[in-house]
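A further point concerns the way the authors explain their paired sequence and structure data. Each protein is reduced to its one-letter sequence and a matching series of backbone shape codes. An entry of this sort, consisting of the sequence and the corresponding backbone structure tokens, reads as follows:
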Amino acid sequence: DATTRADSLLARATFQLKHGDVEAGLKLLEELRGSSATEPRCRVLLLEARLDADEARAPFDAAQVQKLVDELKTIESAAEGIRWRFYQARAWLRGDPNHDENEITTLLTECLQRDPAFSSAAEALGLFHEEKGRAAQAEDVYRRVLAANPRAVRVADRLLNLLQKQARFAEASQVADLLSSAGRDVTSSRVDI
């Protein structure tokens, strides 16, 4: 049936993307996208590949990325969707560094309002705040997501790095202790406390 075929293609494409045959993986995802106007997962994987920082893996094409975001927005519904908001903000951050900061912040904030544990949105929003020199806002984003999702490894690393940069070692140590007690092994963290 169609669902089983889609699942199989997605599994093969994911394997190929992760294990070096990016072109073949992208081709499978495009095949699935062409055969189903309502399949969001292939669009998400295509967006992940296209928004990847490694140009050699999958070249960034702003028009193609925007088309994928628009398709995802239609599938999810403009009013309710969360993934299209996340990928729209990421597309602007990647392809239009001068895009209106308020629009980017609004979309990522809306993602977190709909899903307080959405660690990828928190990481993107927090990093955006850090890059703009708004450390307090970044810290607030990281802490709120960690309260909802104590296993958000990359968010924890961002918070620990932020606290370390500010020489707030006692707080960083407390965060590390809280994360360890919540089952998050911080020994792999890139932070020296």
User: Anything to note?
Assistant: Confidence is low (pLDDT under 50) at residues 187-193. Residues 16 and 63 are 24 Å apart (CA to CA). The two ends are 53 Å apart (CA to CA).
